[in-house]
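Class, study these two lines:
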Amino acid sequence: MTEDLLSLAKRLDQQDSLRKFREEFEFPEYSGEPKIYFCGNSLGLMPSATRGILEEELEAWSSGAVEAHFMGPRPWATYHKHFQEGLAKLLGAKKDEVVAMNSLTTNLHLALASFYKPSSKRYLILTEDPVFSSDIYALQSQLQWHGKSPSRALLSCKPRKGEFILQTEDILKKIERNKNRLALVYLGGVNYYNGQAYELEIIAKAARKAGAMVGVDLAHAIGNVPLELHEWNIDFAVWCSYKYLNAGPGAVGGMFVHSRHHKRKDIFRLQGWWGHREVDRFKMKPEFKPAPGADAWQLSNAPVFNMAGLLASLDIFQRAGFKNLVRKSRAMTKLLEEQIASCSNKSGYRIKLITPGSIDERGCQLSIWAGSYAEELHTRISKAGFVTDLRNPGVIRIAPVPLYNSYEEVVLLAEFLKKWCYYKK
């Protein structure tokens, strides 16, 4: 390793105003030392405060039992409201446009019940390729539910031959070609495989012009890239909170519904108790009266223990400041990108970056194409004490998360890749 590069990384860490937040997370260990964790795009680390919040809710259950729904510092009956402000800031949304509830795929089905309304002429759904498997399963089953053939009604926008990322131009052309039959455009905010952040504002504008609804899967985008869902006129979005939001495995998901849909009389919802307005929810009336805003899409009361980790994480986001996190994320990924690029294009090296080079078209995930060498390389990485993510076919995903990763860790991984990604003769 070049001493100058390591010295640079250590100096950047010393100057980093966010470095104190690293101490608020708990790291898995390897040989008695904390692992170098670059897998926050799959499961974020646990905030230390989570344990205390969980214990507080357990104590509320123990000491208050059913009365804890309406008493104490965080009454369970209104628990979901504690997340509105923090989530709205990360999403670029109004508070009444967001709600923490269910899981991502459950929320996607609920959203599609409201916003995918196929007709005999307008029924096509356009999505990305590759698309995360959970999304494609949901889209296919919704089409089948409506009596549509997925092979005919589900369109995929694929990268050009020999490329890994989608050109915005190609997405717009696909929308234009199918504008008379297109019912929904549904994309990931950040593609899970290649790390590409789509130009959602431009795409949403084209979709609306074509008469289609716009939905977004934010699993890899929320807490990672800047979002302005309200201003971009996104119709709906769904997400999970166990990746960059660090809320824990299987933690509560969320849903965004643009305010222009809130008071529509013609909108259909799959209704549940907690979607009824709060003022008379417990009067158990048979007629459904929707709660204001995105709350109307709720089904059941809050899974309190499943939400506790999100409280801890959103507090950290609030104190760190999302703009500061984005600035550090871009600096770390640029440093890693430069080091990988310095060797990946040379003869004899067998990896290359497939994430867009522009910082405006990616978050903190960098995807490396290693082809048939990917599994062996991933094993070597793991044995060296790094935690990354293997995604078939042939990709290793690396996510330097600004809340808890350091520049020194980025340099250590870069030097490791330089050592093990050369074809030895």
